[in-house]
């Protein structure tokens, strides 16, 4: 029974660690999208739907799922 109580005592720390890792993941994906959108801009291409900074902000808030949407729209031949 003490193992269970030890685990329950550690839950807030584990939860905080998950939050921090999620925030870092969102920041990394947003940075990658911002860099890619900047490369598109340097080549004279426009991003689809919204500006590159808006895409980066959306990925910062939405995380990898929005980044996947960005990638599908900009790097697959389906949308072009």
Would you summarize the structure shown here?
It is built from 3 helices and no strands. It is mainly α.
Architecture overview:
The protein is mainly α. It has one domain (18-75). It has 3 helices and no strands.
**What overall form do the CA principal axes indicate?**
elongated
Cα(first) to Cα(last) distance is: 60 Å
Q: Which structural class is indicated by helix and strand composition?
A: mainly alpha
Main beta sheet: strand number and arrangement? none
How many DSSP H or I helices? Answer: 3
C-alpha-based Rg, rounded? 18 Å
The overall strand count is: 0
Spell out the helices and strands N to C: HHH
Overall tally of structural domains = 1
Instruction: List low-pLDDT spans.
Output: none
Question: What is the topological layout?
Answer:
Blueprint: H1 2-42, H2 52-62, H3 64-75
Helix pairs in contact: 1-2, 2-3
Key words describing this protein structure:
elongated; mainly alpha; 80% helix; 80 residues
